[in-house]
Amino acid sequence: MLNIGMVGVGDISGIYLKNITETFHEIKLVAVCDLIRERALNAQKKYGIEKVYDTMYDLFRDDSIDIVLNLTRPAEHYEVSKNALLAGKHVYSEKPLAATLTQGRELVEIAEKKGLMIGGAPDTFLGAGIQTCRKLIDSGVVGEVVGASAAMICHGHETWHHDPEFYYKFGGGPMFDMGPYYITALINLIGGVKTVTGVTKISFPKRTITSQPLAGTVIDVEAPTYITGVMQFENGTIANITTTFDVFKSNSKNIEIYGSKGTLFVPDPNCFDGEITFYNGETGETQSFPLEFDYSENSRALGLADLAKSIETGRSPRTSYRQTLHVLEVMEAFTVSSNTGKTVEIESKFVRQKPMCAACEHGVLDAE
């Protein structure tokens, strides 16, 4: 069993705390740390965590901790992960790996030099929904995959989030916030990305928060809020994607996979479950498919448990930096392409890992 030290006890931490302590039996949360100490103390009290540290550096010096769980905000991922790696800890980070490709590559270089693993979210692709879709595609239900479409369309977070400003700053925006779910799902369904062509813009340079407690605060927008483009995959598949915080309503949603036999409608990649339907182009009928894998509930920390099992057994992790770096490079490529007016060649290579074990005990990851 590997011991986990959590840095950052913000909004996303609740489901991690619950799942690590109640569901995943092969990892143990032994320490927490947050700049707001009260958050860490509340987590300690509620979940029976042994240690609370004042700073992340104190946590990194704890020899009993094997993996640092980085749940800080996106712009902070690089600094926290880098220092954890330099302290000799494996790292599992919330998405994205880093705010820039340069930062991501540096983290990978440090990890490789020190013989450490750095993996990360999202892990929703390990859930019942995407894993069932992968099985349908791999078994030939859709025929030859020729194309795909993905859309994450909403009107931003300032109307409902209690502190939405960071979504519009460095490391934020709809591509870096939600793109990891969609691109990670696509590469696990189709394979690695070869080229990216994109256009981006900031539609509204200033946005006013209408949610409490910061209603009336004006945000200066730094991150692109409308990103759209085309990905060409290594196997020849072409996929378009749009992520935006600028649209009130759209009928486009989630992911569609276009095959020679019909269209597969993939559930929301931000979730672990969802409805799966297939339109059969030969019969003109639409068929629903049941979920064939475990983890249909909100199972965040599943990827952390998988990473821990891979470290202990030596098998390939499903949520390693080879995936998160590839996703980061693809996401950044949309802005690079937009700024240069050129198609961007993706340098990193991605190889799909084996699908999830459909018969394993809940909360226990496969060893091989």
Report a brief summary of the structure:
This protein is of the alpha/beta class and 368 residues long. The chain has helices at residues 13-22, 37-47, 56-60, 77-86, 101-114, 128-138, 173-190, 302-313, 321-340; strands at residues 2-7, 27-33, 51-53, 67-70, 90-93, 118-120, 145-153, 193-201, 206-208, 218-220, 226-233, 238-244, 254-259, 262-266, 276-280, 286-289, 344-345. Helix 4 (77-86) packs parallel to helix 5 (101-114), helix 6 (128-138) crosses helix 7 and helix 7 packs across helix 9 (321-340).
Layout: helices, strands, pairs:
Layout: E1 2-7, H1 13-22, E2 27-33, H2 37-47, E3 51-53, H3 56-60, E4 67-70, H4 77-86, E5 90-93, H5 101-114, E6 118-120, H6 128-138, E7 145-153, H7 173-190, E8 193-201, E9 206-208, E10 218-220, E11 226-233, E12 238-244, E13 254-259, E14 262-266, E15 276-280, E16 286-289, H8 302-313, H9 321-340, E17 344-345
Parallel strand pairs: 1-2, 1-4, 2-3, 4-5, 5-6, 7-12
Antiparallel strand pairs: 7-13, 8-11, 8-17, 9-10, 11-12, 13-14, 14-15, 15-16
Helix pairs in contact: 4-5, 5-9, 6-7, 7-9
